[in-house]
Amino acid sequence: MGVTKPLLRRIDPAVLARAADIIRLLGHPERLKIVEVLERGESNVSEIREAVGLPQAIVSQHLARLRGANVVASRRDGVHVLYRVIEPKVRHILSCIRTCDT
């Protein structure tokens, strides 16, 4: 019978739950494209739509889901609403995708 090694560090269950929620949310390729655009800085729906090649309604729906999960935030600038990534794990996930895909 083998000896089981203890985990080096236990991750808080709340942190694991949040990470799972974010991974599940970003499991959609269109949402990954959107957060990749927002990784570069703030953008409005029209700019995001143009960058990802999706209809405005679809982009808006994805942004609502991302905003609802506190992955992105928005602010009004005149007639435009600007979106930005506020969840630090998103940058790590995108970096991991880029690194693991080489």
Please give a structural write-up.
This protein has 102 residues and is α+β, with helices and mostly antiparallel strands. The protein is built from five helices and three strands. A three-stranded antiparallel beta sheet has the order 1-3-2. A hairpin with a 2-residue loop joins strand 2 (72-77) and strand 3. The longest helix has 13 residues, at 13-25.
**Count of DSSP H/I helices:** 5
Q: How far apart are the termini?
A: 39 Å
Major β-sheet profile: 3 strands, antiparallel
Rough shape? Answer: elongated
Output the radius of gyration: 17 Å
Q: Please write the string of helix (H) and strand (E) elements.
A: HHEHHEEH
- Any low-confidence stretches, pLDDT <50, length ≥5? none
Percentage of residues assigned to helices: 55-70%
The quaternary structure here is single chain
Present the secondary structure layout.
Blueprint: H1 13-25, H2 29-39, E1 43-44, H3 45-52, H4 56-68, E2 72-77, E3 80-85, H5 88-100
Antiparallel strand pairs: 1-3, 2-3
Labels describing this entry:
57% helix, elongated, alpha+beta, 5 helices, 102 residues
Summed up:
With 102 residues, the chain is α+β, with helices and mostly antiparallel strands. Helices cover 57% and strands 14% of the residues. The chain has helices at residues 13-25, 29-39, 45-52, 56-68, 88-100; strands at residues 43-44, 72-77, 80-85.
